[in-house]
Amino acid sequence: MAHNVHVIDHPLVQHKLTLLRKKETSTTSFRRLLNEIGSLMAYEVTRDVSMHEVMIETPLETMYSKLIDGKKLVFVPILRAGTGLLDGFLSVVPGARVGHVGLYRDPKSLVAVEYYFKMPGGMKERDAIVLDPMLATGNSAVAAVERLKETRPRSIRFVCLVSCPEGIATFQAAHPDVPVYTAAIDRQLNDHSYIVPGLGDAGDRIFGTK
Predict the structure, then answer these.
(1) What is the pLDDT tens value at each position of the chain, 210 positions in all?
(2) Predicted TM-score (pTM) of this structure
(3) Which of 7, 81, 153, 182 would be 128's cystine partner, CB 3.0–4.6 Å?
C-alpha cells in the first residue's frame, strides 16, 4: 500500500459502499448511504485530532476531562460532489467550520479549473479535512489542497470514498505530506478517466443529474 494512505475497512463502511456501488441504487438511497458512510469515516479520520482538558463537575465530584475543540476543525468539501459527505461529518462534529472549494474538470484537458474558494478565518489554528467522494485522476484534489495550503492550516487530511492507484500517485507526488483516507482503492482509471469498477459519477448520482 502507498505510504500515508489509510484504507477504512470497517465492515459497516464496506457494506454501505457495496450498496452505493450498485447501479440500481436510487438517488434517495445513494444520498442516505453517503451520509451514513460519512459519519462512519469521520470517526476514523478524527481518531487522533488534538484535545484539551477542561474542569467539569459530575454529580459526584469535580474532575478534569478531555474535549475536542470542534471550532478548530474545518471541513472542506470540493464542490459539488464533496457536499455529499459533509452532513455525515457534521453529524459527528457539529461545531466544525466549513470551507468550500469549487472546481470543475475541463472535459478536454482534464485540468481542474477553480470557480469558488472561501474558508473560515483563523486557518493557521485549524485542522482541515478535505472531502470528495472520488480520487480519480487526482487533478482536482491536487488543485484543492494546493489552494488550501495558501491559507496555512495547522494540518490537512484528504478523505474520499473510492480511489485508484493513478489518482493516489498523482496526489502523493504533489502533496506527500497530506494523508489520504479512503474506503477503497479500485483497480484503475478507464479511457474516460472514470474509476473502475467504481460507482459511476458521484455528483450525478447524488443530485440526480446526468
Answers:
(1) 567 999 999 999 999 999 999 999 999 999 999 999 999 999 999 988 888 899 999 999 999 999 887 678 999 999 888 898 999 999 999 989 999 999 877 777 767 788 999 999 999 999 999 999 999 999 889 999 999 999 999 999 999 999 999 999 999 999 999 999 999 999 999 998 889 999 988 888 888 887
(2) 0.91
(3) 153
* Domain total of the chain: 1
Contact 206, 30 (CB under 8 A): yes
Tell me how far the alpha carbon of residue 150 is from its chain's centroid: 19
Residue 103: which domain range? Answer: 5-46+70-207
DSSP secondary structure letters along 24-77: T--HHHHHHHHHHHHHHHHHHHTTT--EEEEEEE-SS-EEEEEEE-GGGEEEEE
- Residue 62 in any domain: the answer is no
Alpha carbons 210 and 157: distance in angstroms, whole number: 30
